[in-house]
């Protein structure tokens, strides 16, 4: 059958969200709303298929994560992305997830992206400017910074939510330190075989870790090692 909606980015983005709901990956109204509002097409380099459920190359030997991974992480972090909360996105790449975080935490909250490739930081800022998160970027409730995300971003710590978009051989201690009691971090851990781990910090500062699923992310590493490939 002819796709009567083809050519409309808004409807293609909606279709992607609809499918993620149908497959049970998006389970909440809030996450569906945010992903419907944030057009993924604005974050994927031209000539690629932004609404297909697959990672896409964004240069510098890395990829934008697949829609189902973004949706999974938004679901896991939803309770820690309430209005007014602080969220850190390590390895923010295209800026897509940082922008989603900004919509969730609202103008009283803070969404911070840290990315070690300066060109990707510039790319993400241009993408965000065209998106539904342009205002948060303007008013400062969303910011993206060049830095080594293994050190976190102490300036706005502690965080209610930390997302790591690249796989670490082990969980960097600064990220655990920058998690608020009651806070949650979602991080892929491992080398070739990786687990998506959910790290919850209790009110006494102790942590609980559980494994959600097996994943395959690009490594959280040094800029030099990444560019070497
Ligand atoms: N979550 C982003 C990008 C995922 S790819 C998106 O979906 O668009 C992982 C990103 O982590 C890449 O952009 C890579 O450059 C970045 N990265 C890898 N190691 C890093 C480090 N040590 N510090 C900061 N960013 C890092």
UniProtKB/TrEMBL annotation:
Taxonomic superkingdom: Eukaryota
Listed transmembrane segments: none
EC number(s) recorded for this UniProt protein: 2.1.1.77
Cited InterPro entries: PCMT, SAM-dependent_MTases_sf
CC terms in the record's Gene Ontology section: cytoplasm
Family matches, as PROSITE patterns: PCMT
GO aspect biological process, one term: methylation
Catalyzed reactions per annotation: [protein]-L-isoaspartate + S-adenosyl-L-methionine = [protein]-L-isoaspartate alpha-methyl ester + S-adenosyl-L-homocysteine
Gene3D superfamilies: Vaccinia Virus protein VP39
Keywords: Methyltransferase, S-adenosyl-L-methionine, Transferase
Entry GO MF terms: protein-L-isoaspartate (D-aspartate) O-methyltransferase activity
Family stated for the protein in its record: Belongs to the methyltransferase superfamily. L-isoaspartyl/D-aspartyl protein methyltransferase family.
Name the UniProt record assigns to this protein: Protein-L-isoaspartate O-methyltransferase
Organism per entry: Psophocarpus tetragonolobus
């Amino acid at each position: 059958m002819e796709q009567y909606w083809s050519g409309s980015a808004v409807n293609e983005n909606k279709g992607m969200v609809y499918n993620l709901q149908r497959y049970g990956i998006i389970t909440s109204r809030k996450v569906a709303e945010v992903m419907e509002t944030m057009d993924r097409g604005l974050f994927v380099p031209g000539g690629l298929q932004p609404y297909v459920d697959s990672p896409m190359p964004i240069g510098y030997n890395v990829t934008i994560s697949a829609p189902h991974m973004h949706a999974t992480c938004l679901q896991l972090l939803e309770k820690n992305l309430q209005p007014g909360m602080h969220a850190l996105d390590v390895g923010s790449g295209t800026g897509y997830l940082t922008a989603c975080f900004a919509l969730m935490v609202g103008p009283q909250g803070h969404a911070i992206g840290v990315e070690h490739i300066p060109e990707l930081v510039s790319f993400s800022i241009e993408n965000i400017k065209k998106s539904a998160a342009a205002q948060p970027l303007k008013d400062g409730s969303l910011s993206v910074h060049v830095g080594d995300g293994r050190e976190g971003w102490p300036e706005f710590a502690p965080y209610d939510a930390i997302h790591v978009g690249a796989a670490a051989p082990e969980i960097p201690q600064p990220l655990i330190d920058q998690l608020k009691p009651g806070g949650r971090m979602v991080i892929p851990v491992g080398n070739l075989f990786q687990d998506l781990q959910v790290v919850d910090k209790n009110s006494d500062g102790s942590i609980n870790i559980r494994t959600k699923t097996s994943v395959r992310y690009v490594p959280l590493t040094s800029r030099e090692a990444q560019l070497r490939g």
